[in-house]
Amino acid sequence: xxxxxxxxxxxxxxxxxxxxxxxxxxxxxxxxxxxxxxxxxxxxxxxxxxxxxxxxxxxxxxxxxxxxxxxxxxxxxxxxxxxxxxxxxxxxxxxxxxxxxxxxxxxxxxxxxxxxxxxxxxxxxxxxxxxxxxxxxxxxxxxxxxxxxxxxxxxxxxxxxxxxxxxxxxxxxxxxxxxxxxxxxxxxxxxxxxxxxxxxxxx
Length: 203
Description:
By secondary structure, the protein is mostly helical. 66% of the residues lie in helices and 6% in strands. The chain has seven helices and three strands; from the N terminus they run ααββαααβαα. The protein has a three-stranded mixed β-sheet with strand order 1-3-2. Helix 3 packs parallel to helix 6 and helix 4 runs antiparallel to helix 5. 15% of the residues are buried.
């Protein structure tokens, strides 16, 4: 499941500045003046964003739940297939089939069961992959829209994502992570709450 949970981090790329109305923030980032020949640069810590942005936290839970459900379903189907194969082998060893045709019929049924399980696995993996892609796209869009508004006043020339050691060194005064997280959370409407509201309306 981790490969789906953290694909979002890979989807985050360097985000350039844009021009739109700027929302008010709860916290202000550190000093933004720098000695880069007039180029204003800032960065966002991806790990902090993934653990503190409500959108990321909620979708991580959603993807975990879908992954667990898929794994449980596949495990149940797989155990049923193993049981059928063991039963077939036992009957074969004990001459439990009344005819060759009966043995071949049961063997064909097991093969169909195995093929069905493989198709189910492929379908569930595809569904989970689509959900992850939807999550990545939503995360990227929310960041870009927010930064477009945020950068109206800040006027950064370049906003980078920092994850692990992809940036070997960065002065903390260029870190705008908390500012971005606060702004994103302020404007985020919970997906889970929206779904709950829709269910209430249908009652």
